[in-house]
Specification:
This protein has a single domain, classed as Cytochrome C Oxidase, Chain A (Up-down Bundle). 76% of the residues lie in helices and 0% in strands. The protein has 14 helices and no strands. The relative contact order is 0.09.
Length: 413
């Protein structure tokens, strides 16, 4: 008689990439935001404490290369070979990337108290994680015989750019007088790496998800739009890096037009019988809203001769909290339900958390737009951090156990 050995927690959580990276991503969703929100609150009270790096720069690095990256890697390591009709990535490979990323962020976090050399070491280890990821995904791309690899290629380019951004921060932490290095880290991360991965994935998956729910829907993907997104998000990143806010008038005008053209081919005007699908569409609306705000920011800089920080912050957070974080909530919810053998149906609890997250976006963008009239409104931006935490903490308590337990349908994965 065969006796099955008990499965350890590590064996359970590491059996597929998205279990592993989504599980750790849960902690990245909360801990950096709680830390940053408490800094905003005590800052309003006139309290601060010494750190080896500028707090807002550490916050940006955590959110770009920590929180968002965990979900991107978990998703990419799972679906990239499927897109290209290749064998799944070997567990030893994605586990190696996992340990590089986690150890890098442990070092980075310790470095906030211990000094810049530890911060630099952490950023370097994270860079090695990005390089390793890029090499593994490149091998999948190279081996694939699929005739159309445009979307996969652009996804790969975006992920590889994350390595350049994290390496720039590694150098910046050692040479803080070279501020251009930080702008490279931030510009590549916020205005190319993350939005381009999200949009490239949406380009492929949103029409598919829609066709599953709306049987009469015809999936239309416009290849030139994907190329325009890649080119002009890249151009926008360059405008940020070289502090040329006037350029947003060009980059975001083109991005807005291209995005509207593609979105009109999808089901934005149709009623969604499944709330999970509505999440995706509501999340994507924030991308053109962000572009529109940045168009005004670019026009302001062109007419006045200097940038308007409130407009740029509002556009930034419409993109990051609105488009990117909402898409992570939406995609992670769908993947977590579907890949655990559960029905692709949300309940009122999950719906409520999604709308609470939208409240975080509206509050942050709203306070920054009101800052155009009275800059004192910006002191209330911590409210969005509280709303974020109230949205994601219950979500984590709901979904983290799913990553740590077997599928409900008994299937592997």
């Amino acid at each position: 008689m065969t006796v099955n050995k008990p499965v350890t927690l590590w064996q359970m959580v590491s059996q597929v990439p998205h279990r592993l990276f989504f599980a750790t991503g849960c902690f990245f969703l909360i801990l950096p935001v709680v830390w940053w929100t408490h800094l905003l609150i005590i800052q309003n009270m006139g309290i601060s404490y010494p750190m080896s790096v500028v707090p807002k720069e550490a916050h940006a690095f955590f959110m770009i290369y920590g929180m968002t990256t965990q979900f991107i890697l978990g998703f990419a390591m799972t679906v990239f070979p499927r897109w290209l009709d290749e064998e799944a990535i070997h567990p030893m490979q994605y586990k190696a990337i996992f340990f590089l990323m986690i150890s890098g962020f442990i070092l980075f976090t310790l470095g906030l108290a211990l000094g810049k050399w530890v911060v630099a070491a952490g950023a370097f280890v994270i860079t090695v994680g990005f390089v390793t990821t890029s090499m593994i995904l490149w091998q999948v791309l190279k081996n694939s015989k699929m005739p159309d690899k445009l979307q996969a290629n652009i996804t790969w380019i975006a992920i590889a750019s994350g390595g350049l951004g994290s390496f720039a921060y590694c150098l910046y932490s050692l040479f803080p007088e070279q501020y251009l290095l930080y702008r490279i880290c931030y510009g590549l991360g916020v205005y190319f790496y993350i939005p381009m991965v999200i949009l490239a994935v949406a380009y492929r998956m949103v029409p598919f998800f829609t066709s599953v729910v709306l049987k009469e829907f015809e999936a239309v993907r416009i290849p030139w739009v994907l190329k325009v997104w890649c080119a002009f998000w890249g151009l926008k990143a360059l405008f940020f890096i070289f502090d040329f806010s006037q350029g947003y008038l060009l980059s975001d005008s083109v991005l807005l037009i291209a995005t509207i053209i593609q979105f009109r081919k999808w089901a934005f005007g149709q009623k969604k019988p499944v709330m999970l699908l509505s999440y995706l569409y509501h999340s994507m609306i924030w991308f053109p809203i962000s572009n529109l705000i940045f168009i005004f920011a670019g026009a302001y800089a062109l007419l006045e001769g200097y940038p308007n920080p409130m407009l740029e912050l509002a556009g930034l957070h419409a993109l990051t909290i609105g488009g990117i974080s909402s898409m992570i909530y939406s995609m992670a919810t769908r993947v977590s339900l579907g890949h655990s053998g559960r029905p692709l149906v949300t309940n009122r609890f999950e719906d409520g958390m999604f709308w609470l997250l939208q409240g975080a976006v509206v509050s942050r963008v709203g306070f920054e737009l009101m800052g155009l009239v009275d800059v004192s409104w910006i002191q209330y931006n911590y409210i969005s951090g509280i709303l974020w935490t109230l949205a994601f903490l219950p979500w984590i308590l709901r979904f983290l156990p799913i990553y740590l337990t077997p599928r409900v349908d008994g299937k592997p994965g």
